[in-house]
Hints:
A: elongated
Amino acid sequence: MERLWARVAVVSRVAAWAGAAMLLFAALVVTAEILLRKVVSPIFGASYSFTGSDEIAGYLFAVATSWSMAHVLVTRGHVRIDALYGLFGPRLRAMCDVAALLALGLFVAVLLERTGALWLVAWEDGARSNTTLRVPLAWPQGAWVAGIALFAFALALALVRTVGAVLRNDLALAAELAGASSQDDEIRQELESLPIAHRPMEGR
Amino acid sequence: MMVTALVLLAVMLALSVPVAAVMGVLGLALNQFFALMPLHRAMGDVAWNASSEYILISIPLFVMLGEILLRAGIAARVYAAIAQWLSWLPGGLMHANIGTCTLFAATSGSSVATAATIGTVAMPEIRRRGYHEPLFLGTIAAGGTLGILIPPSINFILYGLLTNTSVPRLYLAGFVPGFMLAGLFMVIVALACILDPAKGGQRVQTSWRERLTGLPTLVPPLLIFLVVVGSIYAGVATPTEAASLGVVAALLLAAWERALSWPMLRAVAEGTMRTTAMIMLIILAAQFLNFVLGAIGLTDGIAEAITGLGLGAVGTMLLIVVFYLILGCFMETISMMILTTPFIAPVVFGLGWDPVWWGIVLTILIEAALITPPVGLNLYVVQGLRARGAIGDVIRGALPFVGAMLVLIAMLMLLPDIALWLPRMVMG
């Protein structure tokens, strides 16, 4: 179980990197299209342009997002209103954590089922996008649904582990697995990730 | 129906269920109890349409742009350059805090990151020059909030999506109030320091030569701002295209500054994707909830109930402003906006307020939420950087700036053209 969770954590991190790479690629494609259309074409007096970058960027965005969802779960990045939660004792907090995972699980289960059905229909009908590219929709949708499935799997695993921890009365582990990250954690993460050197201003 | 919805909402929020799940489960429950058709069957389509929505791609791209820029290591130099120009005012470097926040706001659009970056550079100066600590901290916390009012702002894109409002129009409308708010902040600092010169700290010595040599430092962030915002209005680019250009420009800048490295890119990637996936899951749930609310007629019901109070357009608006100020004390900001807009925006529009105008006012209320305790993220960021003293200092220091926001909202209510004039001039 531990090892499985560790593996899911690694996979979801790598998936998030891949997502960022896709977004960066989308930005490059879109930039290239604008430059060709607005700069290169007018200068050379001919139309050196390609279209469809918006559609491709849309698919890349969808896939990038869904592939990163599990990473948010693993790093406990989901926004929770902790105004009351902060006042609770560890036992009540653990209950809240389980409730939070259950609610998220319910939503994501339906989401996975419906998006899976969408993909299946696109696959069976061989549906293509209604554009000049005529992309077979099952491809981007399949990758997109795969991300949601990874998220759902990580969520199920987190739920099983948290419930197990609560049953064993290991509340510290439950908090580590599913507790709402406090503002302090959030800020520490924010600060750690910035290239900040503590030094006075220069040039005085 | 309305009672069920509110009770469910309150219980789930109290249990600190993640906001995305709150909205998703609420949508599913309302569908189960009140819908005549199984609306959840449409969730796949709703989710796919939102996920591949072209304008939303600008959100991760703007997040990425901000992440790259903040990690490009130019903050300290930009701050020093701006300090040369603004520190003759009563209040000295506190004006530089606000000015630098405004400039970074104009390029990145993330409040927390802006406050964190400027705060680190500025804070050592409190002791060195003997500033009044709470006020100095307040300028950083409040200055950081300017990010979401001055374009390119992620909040405007989300609001535009949720209410079908033109994002370029919102961007144009944000300019004047955004710079006015920065101006109001500076007036507060100047007044405080004229009334009590001890607050103002030691003068920063400067010369015209130093001012001019600092100017080139300001060129890259201004250039990126021009690329991003300018291209939208020149008609060259949509917000998504502009954000793409901005990302590429920021990468080139980071490369020029020799700040590009694998650890830096990794941090950018993880920061961007974490924020993006978190926001997008909320949006997927919100779009589904919107769909259900509309289909079962709850949106109309709420609008009727509030209109039925008979407070008139202004009275109801005041009530809504108070509602947001209170809610903002307890809720994280982006989720507050996405969660409340489906309910509140139709009421506001029904009373005859302009959607673009409300987008601006709502954003100012969200800024206030960032610096009102107990849940005011910027307060904690500043306190976290400071790592000594009590959070009460930061809260006290930020309070006058909440006042400035309320003044601006009052001005906007009296004179909606503060926001609406520019979009009308440019776009007709």
